[in-house]
Specification:
alpha+beta, 6-stranded antiparallel barrel, 478 residues, 3-stranded antiparallel sheet, rod-shaped
Length: 478
């Protein structure tokens, strides 16, 4: 046993506190259970949370922290979208500087933001182009549009004649680039021999009917003369028979001849009168002296007319074997060769390249600024000098654009109106070699401008210094 003094000096050990287990329904809660030591009173064990002392956080705490960061995702997406809109529509100076330092270009090469709102020009300003031509400065008082060079009257595609069926090309009489005249035969089909034989047969039939008509006229004329002669003979016989009968009556009274002889003369007289009646009836078939009015001649003439009609039809059918030029111009392209059957692409293309035009597509929002006789300049990479002309026709129907610029940011579904430009004689001669060439047209507009004063144009084209740098040729020549 320890002495009472020792017991007073040594501190009494703190009694251990019994920790009871948490209720059964709260065992899953992350509440720490602390068990204090009897001697030190400072050590502690953290149970339930998996953390002892001041160690690293448990996996459950890391998961809660990740959930908290998700609250910032919408804000990040909003900031990205706002930056994209600003770069798409405005391109602030800071963004432009950054793109310049990084050697980047907006819109894959365009000189303006990808989306540019339409700009309306005032009395002294420009009418800006949008869509495919947004990167081209239209210049003062000008509307810019894409176009193509076409012959006057467009390109004509020749198809086989109607009714040629399965005929093939037998002979091609032209080559690409040949000049042809209206009505000239350009190709011959292999059905020509059959149609030619039918035409020759019809021509022979006409000859037969013509000979029949001549024969009929001669026969009718002879018949009339014969009938007249028979009538005259019958009348003479009738007169003679009458006289013999009258003489016989006198002789019977004198007892010179018998009554039987008189009766015989009476019968002869009656027979002569009937012959006269028969001759008159035969001559009555020819009611007029005009040969052409005789029935037989009329029938023969109608047969000749029918033969002529059949000949004309056969000659018309013979045209199914030929492909003729509908206009004077040049052969632009041949789609078939000899021995091939014409298809949906036709046989060949022809156009009047002596008079060239440009078909320009103008956006519907800008067409009100364009008027007839407005001066137009046309340029393309293939042209060494610009072409000039004037607006000759403005379309009446709005349609979908068919010409697209090579700008990847260009609008491909714009609504446009076609404007036809008649080129000047010198420009037409230059453009005759570039059918279907895609060009850029600048139409000078403005009520206060007219003639050669429009956008500084003279009779030969642009005045030096007035051309847009965007329309210069690849060599940089003005």
């Amino acid at each position: 046993m320890d002495s009472p003094i020792r017991q007073k000096i040594e501190p009494q050990a703190a009694p251990e506190r019994e920790t009871s287990a948490p209720p059964k329904d709260k065992q899953d809660l992350p509440l720490p259970i602390i068990k204090r030591g009897a001697a030190s009173g400072q050590g502690s064990d953290i149970k339930g949370s998996g953390v002892q002392g001041s160690g690293a956080p448990a996996p459950a705490s890391r998961f809660l922290t990740s959930l908290g960061l998700l609250r910032y995702v919408p804000l990040i997406l909003l900031l990205v979208a706002t930056g994209g809109v600003i770069g798409l529509y405005f391109q602030p100076p800071g963004l432009q500087k950054a793109m310049e330092l990084l050697n980047l270009e907006p819109g894959a090469g365009t000189s303006t933001p990808i989306a540019v709102p339409a700009q309306k020009g005032n009395g002294a300003g420009a009418i800006a182009a949008t869509g495919p031509l947004s990167g081209i400065a239209p210049g003062p008082q000008a509307v810019v549009g894409l176009g193509r060079l076409l012959p006057d009257g467009d390109i004509v595609t020749l198809a086989p004649p109607f009714g040629s069926n399965d005929a093939k090309i037998a002979v091609l009489k032209v080559e690409e680039g040949d000049r042809v005249e209206r009505g000239e035969i350009l190709a011959v089909l292999d059905n020509e021999p059959e149609l030619l034989a039918l035409a020759e047969a019809a021509k022979a039939s006409v000859s037969v009917q013509r000979a029949t008509l001549a024969q009929t006229r001669t026969s009718v004329r002879a018949s009339i003369e014969e009938a007249e002669a028979v009538l005259a003979q019958a009348e003479a016989a009738a007169v003679n028979a009458k006289q013999e009968y009258e003489r016989g009556q006198v002789l019977v009274e004198r007892k010179v001849i018998s009554q039987a002889t008189l009766d015989q003369r009476l019968a002869t007289h009656d027979q002569a009168r009937r012959e006269v009646d028969r001759a008159i009836a035969a001559l009555s078939r020819y009611q007029t002296d005009d040969i052409e009015q005789q029935v037989d001649v009329v029938v023969a003439r109608r047969n000749l007319e029918a033969a002529n009609i059949d000949l004309a039809r056969r000659i018309q059918d013979l045209e199914r074997a030929y492909i003729r030029a509908p206009l004077s111009g040049a052969v632009l392209k041949i789609h078939l060769q000899e021995g091939e059957k014409p298809g949906t692409e036709g046989v060949l293309n022809i156009g009047n390249i002596d008079r060239m035009t440009a078909e320009v597509e103008i956006y519907q929002a800008q067409i009100s600024a364009v008027s007839l006789n407005d001066r137009v300049t046309i340029d393309a990479d293939a042209l060494t000098t610009p072409l000039t002309g004037r607006v000759s026709k403005i379309g009446l129907e709005i349609g979908r654009q068919t010409l697209i610029d090579d700008d990847p940011a260009a609008n491909t579904d714009a609504r446009v109106i076609e404007v036809t430009v008649a080129l000047d004689p010198a420009s037409s001669a230059t453009a005759s070699r570039y059918t279907n060439l895609q060009v850029i047209a600048r139409i000078a507009v403005g009520a206060n401008l007219s003639g050669e004063d429009l956008i500084g144009l003279g009779p030969g084209g642009d005045t030096p210094g007035t051309r847009d740098p965007a329309t210069r040729d690849p060599g940089g020549n003005p």
